[in-house]
Structure formats: C-alpha cells, structure tokens
Specification:
Strand content of chain A: 15-25%
Oligomer: heterodimer
CATH class of chain A: Alpha Beta
Largest interface: A-B, 10 and 12 residues
Distance between the termini of chain B: 25 Å
Strand order of the largest sheet of chain A: 3-2-1-4-5-6-7
Helix content of chain A: 40-55%
Structural class of chain A: alpha/beta
Helix content of chain B: 25-40%
CATH topology of chain A: Rossmann fold
CATH class of the largest domain in chain B: Alpha Beta
Chain lengths: 247, 434
C-alpha cells in the first residue's frame, strides 16, 4: 500500500515520533494529535525538515472521549482520505497502586484501552465509508498473558488486541486492514525508571517494525521479532506453573 | 558501564545519562554535579576526549529546529548526526560545506572537534561554517555564541572538545549542491616528492586526499594514490544508501602484523588505476568510504588501536614527513589507512588542529611498544612546529600539548571564568592538564 495521508494519535510518544520520522522521509502528509502542543509544534518543524510534504498538529487529550470524533473529522476534512491511522498513546500504570485502588486501575484502563476503542470506533466507521485504509495500534507483549507483576496494564493492552482481532474480520470485506503492533521492552520516557537489559529495544527499531508491518499488511507484529518466540513460550506454560511465577 | 570511543582504547568505567530535552539536561547538571563529566555524541573520537566518569550523551537531542531555505541556514539539536542531516538535505540539493571521513558523528561532536575534510585547503574546518550555537554552561544556563556574540566563548567552544560546556544546538551554513555524486580522479605518486608536487599542482581541486603506503621504503617511501574530487553537476539528487556490511566481532590481533600490512598496502598501491579518466561515484562512497563497513574498528583486535594524526607546517612538511615515514617503515608497525592531506590556514578557534601545511594520519594496533614509537614521532612533530589532533589522541603528554597548542592558557582561563573547569573534565583534559 502506498501510504500518503497519515494520522498519528499520541504523537508525542517516543515510538510515534520515531515512526513519524520514517514516514516524513517518504514525503508523507502527517496529522499529529497529542496533549503537549508545544512539543507537537517542535515535532512539526523537525518532520518538515526531514521531508514530510505537510504536517498539521492539533491538541487532543485522549481521556476526553467526547473530543475524539471531532479530532478525527478534523484530520479527515484536511486529508480528504486517511490512508493510515496510527494509535500510539499509552501509560505504564503502577501495578501495586492499581490492584488496591480501583480509581487508579480505571484510569489505566481509560488511557490504555477504552480511549483506544473509542477512537477505533470512529476511525473504523470512516475507513469503511472510504473503503480504504489501515488501522495500526501499538499494544504490547504484556497483553498476551496476565502476569501478576503487571496485569492491569496487560489486561488493558490485551483488551485492545482482542478488540483488534474482531475488528480485523469485520473490516476485511471493506478493504480496511488492521495491524496490531506488540512491542516488548522499549527504552522510552514511559519506561525511563526501569533498569535496562539485553532485551530492550529502541523506539527507532519499533518504528521500523511499524512501517514494515503496515507496508506488508501484517496482522500481528511483534517488535523486535524475537518476542514472537518468547511470547509463544510464555503462552505455552501451563497455568498451574504460571501462577507460581513471580515475573 | 564500560565505555570506549572509536579506537577502543582506553576503557573507562562511566555512568551515562541520555537526556531527551535541554531542560532535562539542565536538571542533570543541577542535581549532584560530578566534577568529572563530559558531553558525548556518537563516540567517534578515537581516544579519551569523550570519556569521563559521568557522560552526558546527546544522542536523544536529535531534532531539526528550523531551516531557512533562502539563506541555506539549518538549525538543529547537537545530537543530530551528519548521516541524518545529509539524508534530509541531499535530496533537496544541499550539502554540508565540510564533512569529515565518517558521517556517524553528531553536529555537537563535529563542532567540538572542529573537524576538517578533504577540502580544508579551500574551505577551512567545520567550525568556520557554524553561524551560531547555544552552549549550556556548568550552571545549566544557556548562552548564545557566534563570531559576533560571546566571541571568545564561541572560539573556545568550536574545537573546545566539550570543555566549555555542552552544545545543545547549532545553526549551520549549508552549501547548494545539485548532485549526489562526485567526479573522482585518481593519480599515482611513486614517492613522497611526487605526492607533494601533485598536491601543489592540484591545489584548486575542490577535494583532495592521498592514501599512502606507510610501509614502503627507500625510493618508494611515500608512494601513494591521490584522489581528487569535484561535485558533479547533473541535477540528480538521490537519498544516500544505507550501510551494507558489518564486522561482526573483533579479529584476532595477530592477523595484523608487518607482513599482512605490507601485503595489503602493496596490493592497494598497485591496484589498476585509470589515471586520466574521471569516474562518477556516489558522494557517500567518496566522502565516507569506511562507513560502508560497520564496526571496522574491530579489525584491529580486542585491545583496540590508536590513530596518530599530526600536522606539520608547510616550511618543513616534506623533510618532517620523510623522517616520520622512515621511522614508521623501519619499525614495521603500520596500518591499512595512512592518509596524507594538504591543509589550509589555521582559524581562530583556540584548540583547532589544522595549520597551513600537511597532515598525516595513521592507525596503529594497540601494543605497549607502539607507545614508545609514538613518543618518538612526537619529538619529530614538535621539532618541526607541528601538533597532534585532539580528536584522535589518547596518549599525548601534557608537555607536548602545551608546546604545540599555544592558546591553551586562554582556554584554561575561559574554563575557570565560566566554571567549566569544575564540571567538565574528560580523561583527556585531565591528562593534558587543562
């Protein structure tokens, strides 16, 4: 697919930024939505210099679901047609806090799952109408199986992955493709407080996986690719053993 | 973590911080300022100039900020690499006025080392094409410096090896260039006299550089191939290609000995060359030939290597080079890459390397006995009024430095005045007594 008009939601995330730079090199038109408009404005300049043929920005706080439809329509009005919508926003909640305090868990679900589903609802309607397009969402390997150390985040990401599976089938007859990108550990501001090891990847590596996955119309992209094997093993561990694992 | 630069010698135990914004960087400087810290870009200096106990990596400060297409002025953060910059700018018909031998360097590093290229004899060094820069001082404050504003600090920072502060962004002059290829000519010189004569007679060639067989002796001493280049003029501006192969691990060091080096050098010198024919080659291949081999530094084995780059003023360049090459060829230590290049006049930057004369760069596999040889070469260089390139250096003595860089006292004074001496100290600056 020749991607031209690209909408990026959560555009200030490290993975979104790195991906936008790759699309800028291909002279794409970009529409960036994010909370911090000063940071978006900086990114706009950067992307124009890197070769983007056009970059527009607008503020969006994804936790205000009521604003989603207008934000997407703004992009659609400008582009005429959205070729690719990339949803990148997310936050890593504090598991300990979330398991004792439902408000914290709800916030984590709102940011990581429900806001994404709201956006997908509006986007899929529009892409069905234009009978063309690609929806790409950054989920996580954490969504593949609930681990006791991180299951709120995992459940939220897992919800999105399941949602995407169903949506993929529903949109397929309408020539709309759905890509679920599941990164492993990525060195970003979201994970700045965690110690890093050999499994960690850079946002640039994930960005390349996004671009390749979209271009090759993949369904599920593990990024980097070795996570597909790790998660295969993780999913195969019998539950009576898995429940004893502290990780 | 254990950190080294491109020569993989020396090794330094360092903590590395990689701030993502100017504000985050200032925050790091404010909290527990360590006295031995230095900015680091891509770590492509060869020795210990980007090594310290605490390292501020600029690789996440990698945004383009503004481009004035009318005047060819590009402002970008210090961590943007030349590769990224050229990828963005070459397809639009722009090139950097000065590029070093690799594009895997950051803008901040290129300024701090005041790097030079194959056109130094005509266009000077990188710092001379910097319109202005913003420098974060030890206090965390940012000052704007240019040849007109905070002039002294500007000339201390360009070629300043990171010792005045951390460059956060810079505005650079680009040059219009409507082709992504270079027209190259190759000329063979049978000895040192011939290569000097060729450099003189091709002074007007935009780019020139000679590869030299450092192990040839007697009548063949200094035999070399001179590569001349001009930007093509064909209105074809392509995006440069990415790197193709990489050296996966360190080669066993014994593979590099006087016999294998001699053989390589001899074969290279005798390669068939069509002397009068212009060849069209990709700019990337002309300017950054080694960038097509990732991690080529691993060829020199686990213990790493040292690059020795000296410049000798015009007046005695020829006899000095003869002395140096004789000394090296009798020692039997040598390298794949020995590069000879004519340089133009020096500039006003306090610690800038180039002088009007000739520069010779050689790689030596790290061995304790090499250090003694290099000390001998130092005395030849000093006797002829030359000096060594700080970006390549890992072992020069304080005395050699002070005798060959006459402005070192001004540098030390400016460092004391701005408080940089209390915070920004690399292994190199400690060794050189700055």
């Amino acid at each position: 697919m020749d991607v031209k008009n690209i909408l990026i939601i959560g555009a200030n995330s490290a993975i979104a930024k790195a991906t936008a730079r790759l699309y800028a090199q291909e002279n794409c038109r970009l529409f960036l939505l994010g909370r911090d408009t000063a940071a978006l404005a900086q990114q706009q300049q950067d992307l124009l210099i890197r070769g983007a043929s056009e970059v527009n920005i607008a503020p969006l706080d994804v936790t205000h679901f009521a604003l989603h439809e207008a934000a997407i329509d703004q992009a659609l009005d400008l582009f005429g047609q959205i070729d690719l919508a990339l949803i990148c926003h997310g936050s890593l909640p504090d598991q300990i806090r979330c398991q004792d305090d439902f408000d914290a868990a709800l916030e984590a679900f709102n940011i990581n799952a429900l806001s994404v589903i709201s956006l997908l609802t509006h986007l899929s309607a529009r892409m069905m109408a234009q009978r063309h397009g690609c929806l790409a969402v950054i989920t996580s390997v954490a969504g593949d199986r609930g681990r006791q150390s991180n299951y709120v985040y995992g459940a939220a990401k897992g919800m999105v992955s399941r949602y995407l599976q169903g949506l993929r089938g529903r949109l397929f007859p309408h020539n709309v493709h759905v890509v679920d990108i599941r990164p492993g550990f990525v060195d970003t501001p979201m994970t700045a407080h965690l110690p890093k090891g050999a499994l960690w990847a850079s946002p640039e590596q994930i960005a390349q996986a996004v671009v390749n996955g979209v271009a090759k119309r993949r369904h599920t992209v593990y990024a980097p690719a070795f996570w597909r094997f790790i998660m295969l093993i993780v999913r195969c561990i019998p539950e009576f053993m898995f429940k004893r694992l502290k990780f | 973590m254990k950190l080294t630069s491109w020569g993989r010698y020396p090794v330094c135990e360092s903590t590395v911080n990689r701030p993502r914004s100017d504000a985050a960087l200032a925050g790091l400087l404010h909290t527990q300022p360590p006295s031995s810290s230095i900015a680091r870009g891509m770590g492509r200096s060869y020795g210990d100039s980007a090594l310290a106990e605490h390292v501020y990596s600029t690789t996440a400060l990698d945004q383009f900020i503004a481009f004035d297409e009318e005047r060819g002025l590009l402002r970008c953060a210090a961590g943007v690499t030349l590769e990224t910059l050229l990828h963005a700018m070459m397809p639009r018909g722009w090139f950097l006025p000065v590029v070093p031998g690799t594009w895997h360097v950051s803008i901040g590093g290129a300024i701090a080392s005041d790097v030079h290229g194959k056109n130094h004899h005509l266009d000077g060094s990188f710092g001379q094409h910097v319109e202005s820069l913003r420098l974060m001082l030890a206090s965390g404050d940012i000052v704007h410096c240019s040849a007109q504003e905070n002039t002294e600090l500007f000339h201390a920072t360009c070629a300043g090896m990171g010792l005045t502060g951390i460059i956060v962004d810079a505005t650079l002059h680009l040059r219009r260039n409507n082709s992504s290829t270079v027209m190259q000519r190759t000329l063979r010189a049978h000895n040192l006299d011939e290569i000097f004569a060729l450099f003189d007679s091709h002074h007007n060639s935009h780019y020139s550089v000679a590869w030299l067989d450092c192990l040839a002796r007697g009548n063949s001493l200094g035999r070399s191939l001179l590569y001349l280049g001009e930007h093509a003029n064909d209105n074809i501006c392509r995006t440069p290609a990415k790197r193709s192969i990489s050296i996966p691990f360190s080669s066993p060091a014994f593979l590099l000995n006087r016999y294998s080096m001699s053989l390589f050098n001899s074969l290279y010198y005798h390669k068939p060359v069509k002397e009068l024919v212009e060849q069209r080659i990709e700019a990337k291949q002309y300017f950054f030939p080694l960038d097509s081999i990732g991690h080529w530094n691993r060829l020199y084995g686990k213990r790493g290597f040292m690059q020795y780059q000296c410049v000798i003023p015009d007046a005695s360049a020829q006899p000095a080079m003869r002395e140096i090459l004789t000394r090296i060829s009798t020692s039997g230590k040598g390298s794949f890459l020995s590069v000879l290049k004519k340089l133009g006049p020096a500039n006003r930057n306090l610690l800038s390397f180039p002088l009007e004369g000739y520069t010779l760069a050689l790689d030596f596999k790290f061995e304790p006995s090499t250090l003694a040889l290099l000390d001998e070469l130092d005395s030849i260089v000093l006797a002829h009024g030359g000096r060594l390139y700080l970006a390549k250096d890992a072992r020069m003595s304080q005395e050699v430095f002070r005798r060959s860089y006459p402005h070192w006292e001004d540098m030390a004074r400016i460092r004391a005045e701005t408080g940089a001496d209390r915070l920004f100290n690399s292994l190199q600056s400690r060794r050189l007594g700055l």
